[in-house]
Design a protein that fits this description.
This protein has nine helices and seven strands; from the N terminus they run βαβαβαβαβααβααβα. It is of the alpha/beta class. A seven-stranded parallel beta sheet has the order 3-2-1-4-5-6-7, sandwiched between helices. The radius of gyration is 17 Å and the shape is globular.
Length: 252
């Protein structure tokens, strides 16, 4: 498949889970993809596992200097960036591996854990978009896809700081869209539509609950569509991957 031949995509946090699934789907359709990870060996291994034009760069989305260096490297490799997929994130299990069975109230959440999640899931989206958008505006335009989660996740008991980080990223995306209204750069939100089988899921999840998880590949069709000519002019939409086919039918 080559419907995206010539499309140049930067995906943050593309080594596993949703990011890896989106990188695979885009590469299969002919896009040139650069995925990022905090570790060089992990990022390169992920890129090597994918068919197509896929490369890896090291990026820590929490650090301005790392973001600037990685965006410059990705731009050099690709010859420009047509689409940014803001996906890099960490979840509750980074500081509470049993967050579903033993939720922790916000007043006992460690400050360094709170900061790590907010800086990755929210500040990271800001820093990468801030580095990419000027070149999109100065060039032929571009598209930004910010990965989000269900609103229920943002408000769930025991989900500090993950819930606030995703709520903040969604608000950021809406403001980005407003700021870019009338320009040649579009911004849209994309979320799976339910709990998804990624590394963020705790090990003690029951077999029944694990069987009900969405496959990360659910993100493939909508992200490919958002990169395609069909999505030209689509702006400030919140697209649920699990409901994508119905959403497209209703739209058309």
């Amino acid at each position: 498949m080559t419907q995206l031949y010539g499309t140049r995509v930067l995906i943050t946090g593309g080594t596993t889970g949703l990011g890896f699934a989106m990188a695979r789907a885009l590469a299969r359709e002919g896009a040139a993809v650069v995925l990022t990870g905090r570790r060089s060996d992990t990022a390169r291994a992920a890129a090597a596992d994918l068919d197509g034009d896929v490369a890896a760069v090291v990026m820590d989305v929490r650090e301005e200097a790392s973001v600037a260096s990685a965006v410059a490297e990705a731009t050099d490799r690709l010859g420009g960036i047509d689409m940014l997929v803001n996906n890099a994130g960490i979840g509750m299990r980074t500081f509470n591996p049993r967050f579903l069975t033993d939720p922790e109230p916000f007043w006992t959440v460690p400050v360094d854990g709170f900061r790590a999640v907010i800086e990755t899931n929210l500040t990271g989206y800001f820093l990468v978009a801030r580095a990419v958008v000027p070149q999109m505006l100065a060039g032929g335009g571009g598209r930004i896809v910010n990965v989000s989660m269900n609103h229920s996740t943002m408000n769930r008991k025991g989900f500090v700081p993950y819930g606030p980080s995703r709520a903040g990223a969604e608000a950021l995306s809406r403001i980005m869209a407003a700021d870019l209204e009338g320009t040649n750069v579009s911004v849209n939100l994309l979320l799976p539509g339910g709990a998804t089988a990624t590394g963020m899921i705790p090990d003690e999840l029951t077999r029944e609950a694990r069987d009900a998880l969405l496959d990360p590949d659910v993100m493939g069709p909508p992200v490919v569509w958002l990169a395609s000519p069909e999505a030209r002019g689509v702006h400030d939409e919140r697209i649920v991957a699990a409901d994508f086919e119905a959403w497209v039918r209703e739209r058309s």
